[in-house]
Design a protein that fits this description.
The chain has 396 residues and is α/β, with parallel strands linked by helices. It folds into two domains: 127 residues, Enolase-like, domain 1 (2-Layer Sandwich), CATH 3.30.390; 232 residues, Alpha-Beta Barrel (TIM Barrel). It is 32% helix and 20% strand. The protein has twelve helices and 16 strands. The strands form four sheets. The chain has a seven-stranded parallel beta sheet with strand order 5-6-7-8-9-10-11. The radius of gyration is 20 Å and the shape is globular. The chain starts with 29 loop residues before the first strand and ends with a strand. It binds 2-succinylbenzoate and magnesium ion (MG).
């Protein structure tokens, strides 16, 4: 892929490129992309408004530079098309057939330019995010930079929240909440759905009057009088925010709700590119954005969304997709940017996986996750484990 020089493209200073100084690294040429389909058992099965999971399968990608440098990325797509249209199968196909062949042989000065290789491929943000993360890891490792610094991060520690699924009973939910509060998590997010909303949230509020609590409906409510009555009841429970009550395309419905309740409305599924973010801002469809590296299509896009949302006066935090250690480390890096001032879904690896693919695993201590000090993602991938456990693999 040709990297056409931009006007004034000379040695850049820290000020010229947002996100910090540009190390004097050789211009990476991507020599090969390898991909591994990997399934890990969950420590505790997770139920959302749409489905229950006891294992998660993600795609781990390994990008090799011509100089031998390696970068790792993760495609954290769900297996089924309930959260977003992508699935592990669609990601696998798009990666193998389009994205990896486009990236191999490309050359770029900065990982923010790597995506030019796949710019003409529409959608498929989860698949693209895996390659984008790997290119950032490759480039920052090659130059001995911390990923968080290269992105323009300013925090050394990130406040960790935890996302709790729908439980069989309110008692079991209260036990989960109690366990995570005792572990030190700074905020609890509760998944809600019709039939599992006001009662469980009220019970959590009664048990923990001062706890920072937010709810996430994954777009499952219709904009009916009945749903509005439910949302008004939730509005009275002192929540930090209500995430994605209505369908992804329903920006106007979110704007009407934001007018009617005091609790901030947060968008997740509604925003997967900057144009949708612009529309959401213009319509006042919320005041908070859950930035997911996967949903936006990578770190480059997540960083741009952060900039745009903060400039519009929105608050942002980093959401997760139950990432393995690679994607989780990328989330920690992006959450170190200054605008991420609400607790993020960056819980420790141990909340989800007994054996993660990175060493050291991501750890939340007293509700904070440290931004690692090593270059790149700051965590080493257990390559032997990844290769041994992979159900399928390819190399381009
Ligand atoms: O909506 O935030 C969501 C997981 C799968 C699909 C959608 C969502 C989630 C989470 C996970 O809430 C949070 C995490 O990774 O810790
Ligand atoms: Mg969500």
């Amino acid at each position: 892929m040709p990297t056409d020089p931009r006007p004034g493209d000379g040695p850049r200073t820290a000020a010229a490129r947002p996100g910090g100084p540009r190390p004097a690294a050789a211009r990476p040429t991507v020599a090969a992309v390898e991909a591994f389909r990997l399934s890990l058992p969950l420590v505790h099965s997770f139920q959302t408004s749409s489905h229950r999971k006891s294992h998660l399968e993600h795609i781990v990608v390994r990008v090799a530079g011509a100089d031998g440098t390696v970068g790792w990325g993760e495609i954290a797509s769900p297996s089924d098309p309930y959260y977003c249209p992508e699935t592990v199968d669609t990601c696998w196909m798009i990666l193998q057939r389009y994205l990896a062949p486009a990236l191999v042989g490309s050359e770029w000065d900065h990982p923010a330019d790597a995506g030019r290789a796949w710019a003409k491929i529409r959608g498929h943000h989860f698949a693209k995010a895996g390659l984008d993360i790997a290119c950032w890891d490759l480039w920052t490792r090659a130059s001995g930079t911390r990923l968080a610094d290269a992105l323009g991060g300013t925090r050394d520690r990130v406040a960790a929240g935890v996302s709790l699924g729908i439980e069989p009973t309110v008692e079991e939910l209260l036990a989960q909440v109690g366990r995570h509060v005792a572990d030190g998590y700074r905020r609890i997010k509760l998944k809600i759905a019709p039939g599992w909303d006001v009662a469980p949230v009220r019970a959590v509020r009664a048990a923990h009057p001062d706890l920072a609590v937010q709810v996430d409906a994954n777009g499952v409510y219709p904009e009916t009088d009945e749903a509005l009555a439910t949302l008004r009841e939730l509005d009275a429970l002192g929540l930090l925010l209500i995430e994605q009550p209505f369908a992804p395309g329903a920006l106007a419905a979110h704007a009407r709700l934001a007018e009617r309740i005091g609790t901030p409305v947060c968008l997740d599924e509604s925003v997967d590119d900057l144009d949708q973010l612009d529309s959401a801002i213009a319509l006042r469809a919320g005041t908070v954005l859950n930035i997911k590296v996967s949903r936006m299509g990578g770190l480059t896009a997540a960083r741009a969304a952060h900039e745009r949302a903060v400039a519009a006066g929105w608050r942002v935090w980093c959401g997760g997709m139950h990432e393995f250690g690679v994607g989780r480390a990328a989330n920690v890096a992006i959450a170190s940017l200054s605008g991420f001032d609400l607790p993020s879904d960056v819980s420790g690896s141990d909340k989800y996986y007994a054996h993660d693919i990175v060493a050291p695993p991501i750890r939340a201590v007293d509700g904070m996750v440290e931004v690692p000090s090593g270059p790149g993602l700051g965590h080493e991938v257990d390559e032997e484990f990844v290769r041994a456990q992979a159900a399928d693999a390819f190399r381009v």
